Amino acid sequence: MTGIAITFLIFAIVIVWGGLVVSAVFLRRRPERTDYPPGGEDDHREDAAPIEHDT
């Protein structure tokens, strides 16, 4: 392998594994979202669901 190929291989490994580590650390620090935008209340109305058609 040439030097440039090894450099790009190391760069790709750092990007992929680094992203995995950063996302795992982020999820470890903030496992659930604590605030949601307004208007997202679910009132469990089943009669207002969209019509389903068999095609």
TrEMBL record:
The chain crosses the membrane at residues 6-27. Keywords: Membrane, Transmembrane, Transmembrane helix. The keyword Iron-sulfur does not apply. Residues 32-55 are annotated as: Disordered. Pfam families: MaAIMP_sms. The keyword Transmembrane applies. Residues 41-55 have a biased composition (Basic and acidic residues). NCBIfam families: MetS_like_NSS (NF033493). This is Methionine/alanine import family NSS transporter small subunit. The lineage of its organism: Bacteria, Bacillati, Actinomycetota, Actinomycetes, Micrococcales.
